[in-house]
Fold each of these.
Amino acid sequence: MKKWIRWKGLIAFAAAAVLTVVVWALVVDAVVRRTIEAVGTRAVGARVDLAEADLSLFPAGLELTGLAVTNPDSPMQNAVEIGHMKMDLDPGYLIKRKVIINDMVVAELRFNTPRKDSGEVPELAPKKSEMEKIDVAEVSKAVAEKVCGKFTMPALSQPDIKAILAEEPLQSIQLATDLEERIKAEQTRWEKELVRLADEKTLNEYRARVEKLKGTGGSFGAILGAAGEVHQLQADIQKDLNLLKQAQTTFTTDLKAYQQQVRDLSKAPLKEIDRLMDKYSLSPTGLANLSQLIFGEKLCGWVQTASDWYRNVEPYIGQVPGGAGGAPEEQEPLRGKGKNIRFAETPPMPDFLIRNLKVNAAVAAGNLTGKAKNITLDQHILGSPMTYAFLGKQMKPIASLSLIGTANYVKPGDPKNNARLNIKGLVLEDLSLVREDSFPLTLKKATGDLILNLETVGNAIDAGLKAEFGAVRFLADAGEPQTAIAEAIGSAISGVERFTLNAEVVGTLDAYTLDVTSDLDKVLKSSVGNLVNAEAAKFQAALKEQITYRLQGPVAKTQGSLAGLSGIEDELSKRLNLGDDLLKGVKLPF
Amino acid sequence: MIEAVANLLRALNSETEPGQISLALCLSMIAGFTPVLSPHNLLVLLLVLVLRVNLSAFGLGWGLFSALAYLLDPLFHRIGLAILTAPAFTTLWTGFYNTVWFRLDRLNNTTVMGSLLFSLALFVPGLILFNLLIRRYREHILAWVKRTRLMRAFEATKFYEIYQSVSGWRGGAV
């Protein structure tokens, strides 16, 4: 047996093990620090610096100090800086290659802090030429317009009628021209028809035949022959008269229809005026949803930004790697070869979980403290949703803030999120609401409270905002002479000291509707309503005058053409009278 | 490297127990085929150091089998995948999956499981085969080799000097 055992080898193994542990203890912190920096830098695309890392085994935990993540778009700035981060790891699960953090404390969390040196990593930096081409504000506005439509202020000045009429083809003029052409065509047709019908010459020939018959006398046989001719003549005359009467009836019907159409021409401008008034004139109706126009673009932009963020994050938190139970499932390994096969666990546990997180963040507005539970990308394995609550007090532009919510991805196919944001004493300053040159509007200052309730179920979103603002000061300063209505709106809104704002967002994340209401509408409508009506009446009168003037010529031509048809009517009547007289004179000579 | 080869040759040509060399080669097969940082290789290392096996044979074998493992990885993956996903073993693997040692050793990985099973399966046959080959070598080939002109020429080389000068691991498997 001794021949097969080498006791010195045991000592060598123990020595190697001790040496490994000592080396590990000496270098592990540096290795952890460098690993976090390297992996973080690759992931972010800019330098991630860590001042210190301390990994301990008993108790298992990791402490990070001075973590700075460079903003890849602005290398002289840190997107996030964490002063101190401490996490207690569950050693049992660590051996099972799962990172389960029982408690995690993040202190001195700050955003957008300056860096002493650039954090750019040239080989990882995004292509600058592409970045420079993108104007974030313009993209955001374009996307908001795509979803919510364009928020265009109604025209606040009387539009240039000549310019409008130069661009807008008048349908009434076209109508008159068409009618004139049709009447002319009708006249030509009837003139041809008159040639086909019995005319004065034909009737005179009938008269000659009558006279000839009257001179017939003599034998009984001659008298009988004349009677036969009289009957034939009567039938011929009657036939032509019938054709003339039929033509007259048809013509009279057509003429009446044309006369009616010519009369209708006078009404055409009214419809034209109504159409152009709707399109170009500011009406009191247009003022009814002015708050939608004032606040809509801003709110839609915010909703869209939130929606974009959510959609960027959602694929990760909603992913379903499986493994909660049932059949074994293949997983791509993080590195190396082969595949990791995942089996059901008892109890099921995600690969990464922060059971309790406490955060102390210094945001631009002040200090924000918060806590969150069950942070994991595999809620369907854990079986519990993530909950969070943040609280901020005595912040710079906010008296207090509370955000409470739940992100429920326990059923990945049916994710549910809800959040309630309550802000008190929010101070808004220099918030540009309308950027139209004709009516730039800025909320110079306002203090208010707002409550935002948000709920998403799958892709559907339902959000409601209720806000009340006081100590309000609006500034509507175009810097150039304004129209009376713009001045009136500016004056009315400048006098507003408080207002309420309600917004509802309903739909899906891709297509939602934003409905904004505010008591500002009432104020604006009552203050500028009469002025708007008067301006609209002036615009209408001027429009009517111009359209009537432009329509005069075509209508006169149409009426002239209609007069031409009257000659045809006279001719038909004349021929009928001659025919009737002739028919009366055709009698038997005995 | 030359020294290690010389040591192995010396062991082969000496009176070292063939089992000590073949066991070293079989243990190196496990260490070489499976990923080097797998925790079970600590056990292999312990066995190599505690059991009186030929260390040179283990070192050379480890290098050889590690190189061979790159070629055999697709085979290991297929074996591991077949075993780990076989419905008949699901209950067994599920039970193991919930144990610390199974997860620590990453035995749910197809390559780790495949290579370990492959090397364990070949362990005993390999031991017998290597033993047989060493004995045959000593009985038939060694005497013949020593008589060849090539060997005589080889004895005049520097390599042979090294071979002769190797003195450590007396008996080939200290």
Note: Residues 167-174 of chain B have pLDDT under 50 and may be disordered.
Amino acid sequence: MSEYTTLNYADVHVGDKLPELAIDITTGLIVGGAMATRDYEPVHHDKSAAQATGLPDVFMNILTSQGLMSRFVTDWSGPEAVIRKLDLKLGAPNLPGMVMTISGEVTDKDDSSGQVSIAVVGENNIWGMHMQGTVTIALPQEA
Amino acid sequence: MTPEEQKAFEDRIYAYVGVKVCERTAAKDAVNPAMIRHWAEAMGDTNPAYTDETWAANSRRGKTIAPPAMMYAWNQEGFTVTRGRASDPQTDMVELFNEYGFTGVLGTNVTQEYFKEVSPGDTLYLEMEIDSISERKATARGIGYFFETLATFSDQNGEKVGTQRFRVLKFIPQEQPTAATGDDKLEVPTRIPSPRGHDNGWWWQAVDEGKLLIQRCKRCQVLRHPPRPMCGECQSLEWDSIESGMEGEVISYTCLRHPAIPGYPKDPVCAVIKLAEGTNLVANIVGCDYDDVFIGMKLKGRIEQVDEKTTLPQFYPA
């Protein structure tokens, strides 16, 4: 278990900031993410279908946004954290060529359940807020 | 729509509240390592709880788990949706919205709650219903209704694994989207271009060339900034300029948190800076946190290219 450490509930404080994660949005990520979540809606892999809706290219599906949000949090918390809730508001689409930067901050701790709430924002460099919300995780209470 | 027509429409739409979109149905595949690995690769997620069986065997859980964010993926229909979706109460409801002109669609919120982790070998069951439809709302996108679906996931033993609420706005688009065709590259936004007029263009030109100039009255030698045609002291129209050493101190400062402006860094620190030569300049302070800035702080400036099209004086803690 050595190379993977998990934060203890006591190690985390309201106001702690998570390390930012910048993700290059590529066609590969959009199509690969859609396939990996079994989302075959044409707008996520077929450029002409996406263009018919008024966007210039294929765009990221929601299940990939959820996946990136959960990864962002567990990259920081470590693997023993248990994800309890992903609550997200959807904003501007992610298209190939954009860079989405995810940032987060601990906003709440619940001592009785060992749960920690993290406000997370994913902003792309062209159209701004792609996703914004709260991830709730449970952390181990002792080492 | 007349009030009577609206009432008739709403009677039909609200009849969908509480209707089951699908009965409890098993996913086509049990939770399995291959689909988990595929997901973890695409997300760039190296969490060993998902993919490292050796690590997981020694962890608190004792085995690998499926990423909770994959919950909805297991029950997706799959490739056949490329040929269109089969009709169900939700597609029927959407069709009814479309018929009345509410053709716009926008997913606004999605909330997943997880009650139990699942591992390879478990099978997820999905049931879904239309949970609520809002009253008619005027939104920035147009007039419409929010509907919310509630998907409930359980395992092969009937234990509840999680829920997903998905909120969608169906609206009358203010303008029909026109199909995009161009293959133009997305343009990365840059900062608002400096307004360069007859009286100040020379100053920006010097910035482009890497120099911070200060206008000086030729007659009385008083310095002035921002650039303007007449000396405020002696009313002379004759002027030249000196180059600033870009040393200064903070007179006042703020942080522009909202709204975020495309092309600008997040939460930029903007300051009024008193230059050693005596004039004031508005510029950004970079290279330190907003919390570390104080009035009287000494600064040293540099002319820097801040994006593809923009060159600006930037000030750092001295």
Note: Chain B has two domains: 3-31+66-171, 201-317.
